[in-house]
Specification:
The chain is α+β, with helices and mostly antiparallel strands. The strands form three sheets. A four-stranded mixed sheet has the order 2-10-9-6, with no helix packed on it. Keywords: Signal.
Length: 133
């Protein structure tokens, strides 16, 4: 019985030693600024002891920020917010000492171009055509 228990402990220990551990984390941001009123996905990758990278989700990472609210890996900045930038910290839940911090600027002006309607374009082209004649 003691031999069986010893072998079981040894087997479990060997699996634990072989399992990959996240050594460091990195922000892998898709954008250079945050937008107000939308879900800004904050991508965090973990570098494993094998050297490969693994995307980390909110169940593995604890997110905090100087502004906004979190839903999973998404940071939502209120449309009425007046902040210029947001400081974001991501830490491993299993090992909180493994963490990274980044400052991301908030987009100042949302430029939404006003496009002409089909009728407005046709009227404009018709006027230009008449001027040439």
């Amino acid at each position: 019985m003691k031999k069986l228990a010893f072998l079981l402990v040894l087997t479990i220990a060997s699996f634990a030693a072989k399992s990959q551990k996240v050594e460091t984390i990195y922000f892998n941001l898709y954008v250079d600024s945050l937008k107000k009123g939308v879900y800004n996905y904050i991508n965090v990758d973990g570098k494993l002891s094998s050297g490969s990278f693994l995307p980390l989700m909110a169940d593995e990472v604890l997110f905090s920020s100087s502004s906004g609210k979190w839903e999973g890996n998404n940071l939502i900045i209120d449309t009425s917010s007046k902040v210029d930038s947001v400081v974001i910290t991501a830490a491993l839940k299993a090992r909180p000492e493994v963490k990274k911090t980044v400052t991301i600027w908030v987009k100042k002006v949302e430029i939404i171009p006003v496009l002409k309607t089909e009728k407005e374009l046709l009227d404009e082209w018709t006027k230009k055509g008449k001027k040439k004649n």
